[in-house]
C-alpha cells in the first residue's frame, strides 16, 4: 500500500471511531456487546439542478442523491416459505433531491412480477413503495411518535392497466398537491414524485434546513398467495419505520453534494455485509454505489474496526459497473478473513476515492460477529444440575430459568439477523450466568447493571429486558407480584431533555406535578386519564366536549371540568352550545392561545375540540355529518391506574405506579441505586403496601380444598404475532414465579402444543395450559384449556358454545378493542348477554359495578407479545390445582381476582376472594413457601440444557395429517 493510501485508511479509521463509536469508550461502552452509541450524521440532500418533469424519464436527476435499497443487508422481512430471490425479484434505487416546489423523489424498481390489487390503506400488503417523511420543527424532529408533519406514504406501482398512485396513511392526515408519474420497464418500473413544501410548513426550503426521509420496498408475487407483505427491504435495514420516526434518515438541504475526507456518503453508498455473521469462513463484504456518484469513483478502501477503535483489516478494491436495471451504478465485493476475531460488534467502513486519488467521502455499517458465543453459553448451561439447584435453593433455580429464556431470545434474534437484539441477549445471558455462578455484574455492565437488583434470590426481585433500551423490575412475594417499575435507557441528550415531554400526538395530557426523589428530578401524575369505547348517544352536550382527531376518525367525549388537559390545534364552538359551556371553552381557548375556527376549518386540523351537539347536524354540511357519524367514539374517564411517578436517574427514566406513594418512592430509590436488594428491604416494601392499600374486609377463608395460585391467562409466541419462542415463554413464566401459564396464540394451538411437547421431552412439570385467542375482526376471546382449535369466523355465541363443548373457560379479551358495534353494545353491561366467564383487565366502572353488585369476574393478563411480563398484571385463583381443567373451573365458578400492581388497589374482584388474597399477602411466609414448593415440583427432574437444545430456533409448521 502506498503512503497516500495508508494515510487515507488511517483517516477512515479515525472517522469511524468518531462517527460510529463516539468518543473513547467509557466503562459502560467498553464491552464487546455494548451497542454503538446513537449518533446521527445528516446526509446531504442536493437541489435538483434541472426542472422536474414528471414523465417517468430520469434525465433531470443527475444531481440527486441516489440511495440503493437492493441488497440482502436491506432485507428486514422474509416470511417462512417466501424467500427473497435477489435484487431482480425486488430491489430499488431511490433518487432524492429538492427544489423550490418541494421534495423530489424518484425510484427505479426491479420487480419480476408487479402485483397490487389493494386500495389505499392496504397497498403495503402487496407490491408497494413506502415513503416516510419528517418535516417537523426541531423539538419534534425524528422523535417518537408520529405527529403532524410526519408522514407515511404508499406508492402503488404502475401496471399495464393502472397509473401509479401516491396515498398518505390516514393516521397522518392528508397532503394537498401530491404529484406522481411513472411507467413500467422491462425489469420493473420507474416512478417520479413531488411532495410539496406545504405538507411541512415547519421547514423553510433553503440550504441548511433539515428533513427526515426513509424508504421501504414491499414485494409480493403470485407465489405468495394469501400472505400479506411477505418481503420488505428498507434503507439501512431500519425496522418498525411505520411506527417510529426515530428510524428515519436525517438529511440536510444543500445546493450541491459535498465531497472530501469527512463528507458523509451513507446512505448513497450501501455496505452489504451480514448484520449477524455466524460462519467461521471469511465474511463477504460488498459496496453498492448509486448512479449519481458512480461516475466519480476510481477506487474503494475498506477497513474493519473493533469496538475499541482498532483497525483489524483493510483492503483497496476497484469498482465494477453494475448491470441490468442498475446500469450506471458501480459496486465492488471482497471478503474479510475473520479468523482470530472475537465475537462482538465491528464497524465495516468504506472510503471512496475519485479517479485523481482525491477522497470523495466515507460510509460505514455495523455488524455482529457471532460464531462461538452460543456454544460457550450452552456449555455453561449444560453444567447446570437444575434438580440439585432447586433442591438447595428454589429461588436461585428460578434465576437459571431467566438465563434459559434469554438463550431462547438469543437464538431467535440470531436467526432473524436482529443484530442489536442478538448482542444484547448474548451480553444478558453471560451476565445472568455470571451472577448465578457466584460472581457479580461487571462494572462495565451497562444497562444490564439492573440485574444486580435480583442478585439475592431471597429478595424475589425479577428483572426483565424487553429490548436493549427497556427493562422492567418486579417485586414478588411468592407468586404474587406486588410492585413494579419500568426503566427506559435514554441514549441521546435530546431523549434526556424530552424525558418528561408529553406525547406529540396526544389530545390529552394528564396534569402532573414536579417532585424530587433522592435528589433526582421527577414528575408525579395523580390522575391518569384513559379512553373507553362507548356509544356516541351517551354524549352530553351540556357537560362534555368532543376531542377529535379527524384524520384518524376518532372522537372522545371529555367532561368540561377536565378541559385543561386537552392538547388541540383548534377549537370549534357550535351555535347550539349551551352558554355556560361556551363561556368555559372560549375562556380556556383564549388562555391557551388556541384559535377559534368554524367546523369545516377545524376538521382539517390534526386535533380539534368541538363544543356543542355535533350529532344533530343543524347547519352542518352533509359530507361533514357523514364524517362525524363515522367516528369511532370513546369516553375519557379516570383510569384505574394509581398515580404515576416518573423519575430521571441520569440517563434512565424510571416509571412506577402504586396505591402507596411511599412504596412507589422506595421502588424508585431501589431501582435507581442498582445495588442488590436485600430480602429485608423487599419484605419491608410488602409490609408497607399492605398497611397502606389493603382494604378493611370481613375475614374470609379461601374455598375449601383450594390453593392460592397466580398465573397469566393471555400470552403470545412467535407462532402468531409474538416474539418469544414457546419454550422461552414457558421459562420466562417460571422465572417470574408463576404457578401456571396459558399460551393463547391468535387462531392457532401450534405454539402451545409445541411448548407442551418440549416440556415433556425435557421433563419439566410446569402447568402449561393450551389456549387460543379466537381473533375475529369485531372481538377477541380467550378459551382454555383446549383440545382442538376453535374457528375464528364463528359468531360470539357460537364461539362461547364451542368453548363450552371442550369444557373450557372463555374470557372477553381487552373489552373495547377492536372497536365495533358488538363491543359498543356490550361495554356498559359488563358480561351480561355475552355468555363469557370473565372480563379481562380492570374496567373503568369497577367501583360503580362493585357498589351495584354487577361487577363481572375479572382476570388480569400481560397479553405479552415480546416474551416478557413487565408490570405483573396477572390472575390470582383459588383452585384445586394449577392444571388447565382446574384453572378453567376456578374461572367459571368466580374464584378469581385480577392482580394489578400498578393500580390503586392491587387486587380486584369479589370481596369473598379479596379477603383471603390480602390475608395471604399480609402474612407472606406461606406464599413464599408454596411458590418454592411448586418450583421444586416443576424442576426436580428438569433438564434445562435438553429443553434449549430441543427448542427450534424458528416456528415449526405442524405436520400434515
Notes on the protein architecture:
The chain is built from 21 helices and 45 strands. It is globular, with a radius of gyration of 29 Å. The longest helix has 22 residues, at 394-415. The protein folds into four domains: 3-29 and 264-369, Immunoglobulin-like, CATH 2.60.40; 43-254, Sandwich (Immunoglobulin-like); 529-638, no CATH class; 707-950, Metal-dependent hydrolases (TIM Barrel, Alpha-Beta Barrel), CATH 3.20.20.140. The strands form seven sheets. A ten-stranded mixed sheet has the order 42-41-40-39-38-37-36-43-44-45. Helix 13 (726-735) links the parallel strand 36 and strand 37 (740-746). It has 961 residues and is α+β, with helices and mostly antiparallel strands. Helices cover 24% and strands 29% of the residues.
Q: Which shape, going by the Cα principal axes? A: globular
How many separate structural domains? 4
| CATH class group of the largest domain | Alpha Beta
Give start-end ranges of low-pLDDT stretches: 1-30
- Please compute the radius of gyration using only Cα atoms: 29 Å
Largest sheet: 10 strands, mixed
What is the topology, as strand order, of the major beta sheet?
42-41-40-39-38-37-36-43-44-45
Full CATH superfamily name of the largest domain: Metal-dependent hydrolases
Distance between the termini: 63 Å
CATH fold name of the largest domain: TIM Barrel
Average predicted confidence as pLDDT: 92
Number of helices: 21
Structural class: alpha+beta
* CATH architecture identity of the largest domain: Alpha-Beta Barrel
Q: Which band does the percent of strand residues land in?
A: 25-35%
- What's the count of strands? 45
Percent of residues in helices: 10-25%
